[in-house]
Protein backbone atom coordinates (compact mmCIF):
# COMPACT_ATOMS: atom_id res chain seq x y z
CA UNK A 1 0.00 0.00 0.00
CA UNK A 2 1.38 3.40 -0.97
CA UNK A 3 0.38 6.63 0.74
CA UNK A 4 1.48 10.02 -0.59
CA UNK A 5 1.28 12.93 1.83
CA UNK A 6 1.80 16.62 1.17
CA UNK A 7 3.75 17.94 4.11
CA UNK A 8 4.34 21.42 5.43
CA UNK A 9 7.86 22.77 4.95
CA UNK A 10 10.03 22.60 8.04
CA UNK A 11 10.50 25.97 9.82
CA UNK A 12 12.95 28.21 7.97
CA UNK A 13 12.11 26.91 4.50
CA UNK A 14 9.66 28.37 2.04
CA UNK A 15 8.65 25.58 -0.26
CA UNK A 16 6.45 22.74 0.62
CA UNK A 17 8.07 19.42 0.42
CA UNK A 18 6.39 16.42 -1.06
CA UNK A 19 6.76 13.60 1.34
CA UNK A 20 6.52 10.10 0.26
CA UNK A 21 5.41 7.66 2.81
CA UNK A 22 5.65 4.04 2.02
CA UNK A 23 3.55 1.77 4.07
CA UNK A 24 4.32 -1.87 3.72
CA UNK A 25 1.20 -3.75 4.51
CA UNK A 26 2.43 -6.91 6.11
CA UNK A 27 0.07 -9.60 5.09
CA UNK A 28 -0.81 -12.95 6.52
CA UNK A 29 1.81 -14.98 8.18
CA UNK A 30 3.11 -12.60 10.84
CA UNK A 31 3.88 -14.40 14.04
CA UNK A 32 2.23 -17.68 13.16
CA UNK A 33 4.16 -20.87 12.99
CA UNK A 34 3.53 -23.12 10.05
CA UNK A 35 2.45 -26.23 11.89
CA UNK A 36 3.52 -29.26 10.01
CA UNK A 37 2.36 -32.59 11.36
CA UNK A 38 0.72 -33.14 14.74
CA UNK A 39 1.02 -36.50 16.44
CA UNK A 40 -2.03 -37.50 18.51
CA UNK A 41 -1.35 -40.12 21.11
CA UNK A 42 -3.55 -39.86 24.17
CA UNK A 43 -5.09 -43.26 23.57
CA UNK A 44 -3.37 -45.00 20.69
CA UNK A 45 -0.30 -46.49 22.37
CA UNK A 46 -2.33 -47.52 25.41
CA UNK A 47 -4.87 -49.25 23.19
CA UNK A 48 -2.23 -50.99 21.08
CA UNK A 49 -2.56 -49.08 17.79
CA UNK A 50 0.00 -46.81 16.17
CA UNK A 51 -0.25 -43.14 17.16
CA UNK A 52 -2.01 -40.84 14.70
CA UNK A 53 -0.17 -38.42 12.41
CA UNK A 54 -2.37 -35.46 11.52
CA UNK A 55 -0.79 -33.46 8.68
CA UNK A 56 -1.81 -30.03 9.93
CA UNK A 57 -0.38 -28.00 7.08
CA UNK A 58 -2.01 -30.25 4.48
CA UNK A 59 -5.41 -29.46 6.05
CA UNK A 60 -4.75 -25.80 6.83
CA UNK A 61 -4.24 -24.90 3.21
CA UNK A 62 -7.57 -26.50 2.36
CA UNK A 63 -9.82 -25.35 5.21
CA UNK A 64 -10.26 -22.29 7.35
CA UNK A 65 -9.15 -22.58 10.93
CA UNK A 66 -12.64 -22.18 12.29
CA UNK A 67 -13.88 -25.34 10.55
CA UNK A 68 -11.85 -27.46 12.96
CA UNK A 69 -11.08 -25.09 15.82
CA UNK A 70 -14.61 -23.68 15.91
CA UNK A 71 -17.26 -25.90 14.42
CA UNK A 72 -15.63 -29.28 15.07
CA UNK A 73 -14.38 -28.34 18.54
CA UNK A 74 -10.65 -29.11 18.24
CA UNK A 75 -8.78 -27.15 20.89
CA UNK A 76 -5.78 -25.24 19.48
CA UNK A 77 -3.16 -27.03 21.52
CA UNK A 78 -1.23 -30.13 20.58
CA UNK A 79 -2.15 -33.01 22.84
CA UNK A 80 -5.17 -31.23 24.32
CA UNK A 81 -7.90 -33.10 22.48
CA UNK A 82 -9.21 -36.34 23.86
CA UNK A 83 -10.70 -37.88 20.75
CA UNK A 84 -12.07 -41.42 20.66
CA UNK A 85 -12.36 -43.71 17.66
CA UNK A 86 -16.07 -44.11 18.42
CA UNK A 87 -16.61 -40.35 18.09
CA UNK A 88 -14.75 -40.31 14.78
CA UNK A 89 -16.80 -43.22 13.45
CA UNK A 90 -19.92 -41.32 14.55
CA UNK A 91 -18.89 -38.39 12.35
CA UNK A 92 -17.27 -36.11 14.89
CA UNK A 93 -13.74 -34.58 14.76
CA UNK A 94 -11.76 -36.24 11.93
CA UNK A 95 -14.88 -38.22 11.08
CA UNK A 96 -16.76 -35.10 9.98
CA UNK A 97 -14.76 -35.30 6.76
CA UNK A 98 -13.22 -38.77 6.73
CA UNK A 99 -16.55 -40.38 5.99
CA UNK A 100 -16.06 -41.64 2.45
CA UNK A 101 -17.64 -38.53 0.97
CA UNK A 102 -15.57 -35.41 1.72
CA UNK A 103 -12.45 -37.53 2.22
CA UNK A 104 -11.59 -41.22 2.41
CA UNK A 105 -13.33 -43.08 5.20
CA UNK A 106 -12.34 -44.38 8.65
CA UNK A 107 -11.75 -47.86 7.23
CA UNK A 108 -8.29 -46.71 6.12
CA UNK A 109 -6.86 -47.23 9.60
CA UNK A 110 -3.23 -47.11 8.50
CA UNK A 111 -3.48 -43.71 6.81
CA UNK A 112 -4.16 -42.11 10.21
CA UNK A 113 -2.51 -44.60 12.58
CA UNK A 114 0.81 -44.28 10.86
CA UNK A 115 3.36 -43.18 13.47
CA UNK A 116 5.92 -45.48 14.98
CA UNK A 117 4.72 -46.94 18.30
CA UNK A 118 5.83 -44.78 21.20
CA UNK A 119 5.95 -41.49 19.25
CA UNK A 120 4.98 -38.78 21.70
CA UNK A 121 2.14 -36.34 21.03
CA UNK A 122 3.20 -32.95 19.65
CA UNK A 123 4.27 -30.96 16.62
CA UNK A 124 6.69 -32.62 14.21
CA UNK A 125 8.56 -31.45 11.17
CA UNK A 126 8.94 -27.68 11.39
CA UNK A 127 7.82 -26.25 8.09
CA UNK A 128 7.52 -29.55 6.35
CA UNK A 129 4.49 -31.71 6.08
CA UNK A 130 5.46 -35.28 5.49
CA UNK A 131 2.09 -36.97 5.77
CA UNK A 132 1.37 -40.54 6.77
CA UNK A 133 4.07 -42.82 8.05
CA UNK A 134 6.98 -40.47 8.50
CA UNK A 135 7.33 -40.19 12.26
C1 LIG B 1 -9.25 -40.18 9.98
C2 LIG B 1 -8.26 -40.66 10.88
C3 LIG B 1 -8.46 -42.02 11.55
C4 LIG B 1 -8.75 -43.21 10.94
C5 LIG B 1 -8.95 -43.49 9.48
C6 LIG B 1 -8.79 -44.19 12.00
N1 LIG B 1 -8.51 -43.61 13.19
FE1 LIG B 1 -8.44 -44.55 14.98
N2 LIG B 1 -8.10 -42.74 15.91
C7 LIG B 1 -7.93 -41.54 15.26
C8 LIG B 1 -7.63 -40.54 16.25
C9 LIG B 1 -7.37 -39.08 15.98
C10 LIG B 1 -7.62 -41.19 17.51
C11 LIG B 1 -7.25 -40.57 18.87
C12 LIG B 1 -5.73 -40.72 18.95
C13 LIG B 1 -5.10 -40.58 20.30
O1 LIG B 1 -5.36 -39.58 20.98
O2 LIG B 1 -4.29 -41.47 20.68
C14 LIG B 1 -7.92 -42.57 17.25
C15 LIG B 1 -7.98 -43.56 18.24
C16 LIG B 1 -8.08 -44.91 18.01
C17 LIG B 1 -7.96 -45.93 19.03
C18 LIG B 1 -7.70 -45.68 20.51
C19 LIG B 1 -8.85 -46.12 21.39
C20 LIG B 1 -10.17 -45.50 21.05
O3 LIG B 1 -11.12 -46.26 20.87
O4 LIG B 1 -10.26 -44.28 20.90
C21 LIG B 1 -8.08 -47.14 18.39
C22 LIG B 1 -8.04 -48.54 19.02
C23 LIG B 1 -8.29 -46.88 16.98
N3 LIG B 1 -8.29 -45.50 16.79
C24 LIG B 1 -8.45 -47.84 16.02
C25 LIG B 1 -8.70 -47.56 14.67
C26 LIG B 1 -8.99 -48.59 13.69
C27 LIG B 1 -9.04 -50.09 13.97
C28 LIG B 1 -9.19 -47.94 12.50
C29 LIG B 1 -9.59 -48.52 11.17
C30 LIG B 1 -10.81 -49.35 11.18
C31 LIG B 1 -9.00 -46.51 12.74
N4 LIG B 1 -8.72 -46.35 14.08
C32 LIG B 1 -9.06 -45.55 11.79
C33 LIG B 1 -8.02 -41.32 13.92
C34 LIG B 1 -8.31 -42.27 12.97
C1 LIG C 1 -8.78 -30.05 9.46
C2 LIG C 1 -8.74 -29.52 10.82
C3 LIG C 1 -7.88 -28.35 11.17
C4 LIG C 1 -7.76 -27.15 10.51
C5 LIG C 1 -8.45 -26.70 9.24
C6 LIG C 1 -6.85 -26.35 11.30
N1 LIG C 1 -6.43 -27.06 12.38
FE1 LIG C 1 -5.14 -26.42 13.80
N2 LIG C 1 -5.17 -28.27 14.70
C7 LIG C 1 -5.99 -29.30 14.31
C8 LIG C 1 -5.70 -30.47 15.14
C9 LIG C 1 -6.38 -31.82 15.04
C10 LIG C 1 -4.68 -30.08 16.04
C11 LIG C 1 -3.98 -30.96 17.09
C12 LIG C 1 -4.83 -31.07 18.30
C13 LIG C 1 -4.28 -32.05 19.32
O1 LIG C 1 -3.12 -32.46 19.21
O2 LIG C 1 -5.01 -32.40 20.25
C14 LIG C 1 -4.39 -28.69 15.75
C15 LIG C 1 -3.47 -27.91 16.43
C16 LIG C 1 -3.30 -26.55 16.25
C17 LIG C 1 -2.48 -25.70 17.09
C18 LIG C 1 -1.67 -26.14 18.30
C19 LIG C 1 -0.21 -26.16 17.99
C20 LIG C 1 0.63 -26.32 19.22
O3 LIG C 1 1.82 -25.94 19.15
O4 LIG C 1 0.15 -26.79 20.28
C21 LIG C 1 -2.59 -24.42 16.60
C22 LIG C 1 -1.94 -23.17 17.14
C23 LIG C 1 -3.44 -24.49 15.43
N3 LIG C 1 -3.87 -25.80 15.26
C24 LIG C 1 -3.76 -23.41 14.65
C25 LIG C 1 -4.50 -23.47 13.48
C26 LIG C 1 -4.69 -22.35 12.58
C27 LIG C 1 -4.15 -20.95 12.82
C28 LIG C 1 -5.45 -22.82 11.53
C29 LIG C 1 -5.92 -22.09 10.30
C30 LIG C 1 -4.90 -21.40 9.53
C31 LIG C 1 -5.72 -24.23 11.80
N4 LIG C 1 -5.12 -24.58 12.97
C32 LIG C 1 -6.47 -25.05 10.98
C33 LIG C 1 -6.92 -29.28 13.29
C34 LIG C 1 -7.05 -28.28 12.35
C1 LIG D 1 -12.58 -30.44 7.46
C2 LIG D 1 -12.37 -31.74 6.86
C3 LIG D 1 -11.30 -32.64 7.42
C4 LIG D 1 -11.07 -32.94 8.75
C5 LIG D 1 -11.81 -32.46 9.97
C6 LIG D 1 -9.96 -33.87 8.77
N1 LIG D 1 -9.54 -34.12 7.49
FE1 LIG D 1 -7.95 -35.29 6.96
N2 LIG D 1 -8.27 -34.83 5.00
C7 LIG D 1 -9.32 -34.08 4.51
C8 LIG D 1 -9.25 -34.08 3.06
C9 LIG D 1 -10.23 -33.40 2.12
C10 LIG D 1 -8.12 -34.84 2.70
C11 LIG D 1 -7.65 -35.18 1.29
C12 LIG D 1 -8.35 -36.44 0.89
C13 LIG D 1 -7.92 -36.96 -0.44
O1 LIG D 1 -6.83 -36.63 -0.92
O2 LIG D 1 -8.71 -37.75 -0.99
C14 LIG D 1 -7.52 -35.28 3.95
C15 LIG D 1 -6.36 -36.05 4.02
C16 LIG D 1 -5.83 -36.57 5.18
C17 LIG D 1 -4.61 -37.34 5.26
C18 LIG D 1 -3.71 -37.70 4.09
C19 LIG D 1 -2.74 -36.58 3.84
C20 LIG D 1 -1.88 -36.80 2.63
O3 LIG D 1 -0.70 -36.39 2.64
O4 LIG D 1 -2.37 -37.39 1.65
C21 LIG D 1 -4.47 -37.72 6.56
C22 LIG D 1 -3.35 -38.57 7.14
C23 LIG D 1 -5.58 -37.16 7.31
N3 LIG D 1 -6.36 -36.45 6.43
C24 LIG D 1 -5.76 -37.32 8.66
C25 LIG D 1 -6.73 -36.66 9.40
C26 LIG D 1 -6.88 -36.77 10.85
C27 LIG D 1 -6.04 -37.66 11.74
C28 LIG D 1 -7.89 -35.93 11.22
C29 LIG D 1 -8.40 -35.61 12.60
C30 LIG D 1 -7.39 -35.27 13.61
C31 LIG D 1 -8.39 -35.32 9.99
N4 LIG D 1 -7.66 -35.78 8.93
C32 LIG D 1 -9.42 -34.39 9.93
C33 LIG D 1 -10.27 -33.43 5.25
C34 LIG D 1 -10.35 -33.41 6.63
Q: How does this model look, in words?
A:
The structure is a single chain. The protein has 135 residues and is of the alpha+beta class. The protein has a domain at 37-124: Cytochrome C3 (Alpha-Beta Complex). The protein has 5 helices and 5 strands, in the order βββαβααααβ. 16% of the residues are buried. Bound molecules: heme C (HEC) (3 copies).
Please render the helix and strand layout as text:
Layout: E1 2-7, E2 17-22, E3 37-40, H1 44-47, E4 52-55, H2 56-60, H3 65-71, H4 85-89, H5 109-112, E5 122-124
Bound molecules: heme C (3 copies).
Average pLDDT, rounded to a whole number, is 79
Percentage of residues in helical conformation: 10-25%
Q: What is the assigned CATH homologous superfamily of the domain at 37-124?
A: Cytochrome C3
The name of the CATH topology of the domain at 37-124 is Cytochrome C3
Total DSSP E strands: 5
Radius of gyration, rounded?
24 Å
Count of individual helical segments: 5
Strand order of the largest sheet: 4-3-5
- Global shape: globular
Fraction in beta strands: 15-25%
Which ions, cofactors or small ligands are bound in this entry? heme C
**Terminal Cα span:** 43 Å
Instruction: Name the CATH architecture of the domain at 37-124.
Output: Alpha-Beta Complex
Q: What is the ordering of alpha helices and beta strands?
A: EEEHEHHHHE
CATH uppermost class of the domain at 37-124: Alpha Beta
Reported for the largest beta sheet, the result is: 3 strands, antiparallel
Low-confidence stretches: 1-9, 15-33
**Content-based structural category:** alpha+beta
